[in-house]
Amino acid sequence: MRTLLAxxxxxxxxxxxxxxxxxxxxxxxxxxAPGGENLGSYWMPDHADPAQAMRALAVLYxxxxxxxxxxxxxxxxxxxxxxxxxxxxPVSGLFGTEPRAPVFHAxxxxxxxxxxxxxxxxxxxxxxxxxxxxxxxxxxTALD
Length: 144
Fold this sequence. Notes:
Layout: H1 2-12, H2 24-32, E1 38-45, E2 55-63, E3 71-81, E4 84-90, E5 97-104, E6 108-115, E7 127-134, E8 140-142
Antiparallel strand pairs: 1-2, 2-3, 3-4, 5-6, 6-7, 7-8
């Protein structure tokens, strides 16, 4: 079951290396889930060109040790400074799978994830949830 979940998450993950972003998998494990087993990750920059990106959100799903198919979500914001695009810190309060449709604003970003509906089985979330992430607090807030 864990292998099936990993395959699903990887298949759904967006192309993290559309441009030359380097070894994102290693960087995301290091920053978001040290020692964890990466089941799939999403890299959502505000610009496709690494040299022009000012911010990026990373979402990583890691296996929960000892569980058959359990996974946890780790999210982090990256921001450009004088040295380049660097890990700014963990994002709290973000839930769901299949993060998508990021929109970057001056003080926050928004994105959508899939969440379980009232009658959904654990495997198959059917409800879209829009989130806002404040750059200053790194906190995610549900919008809908």
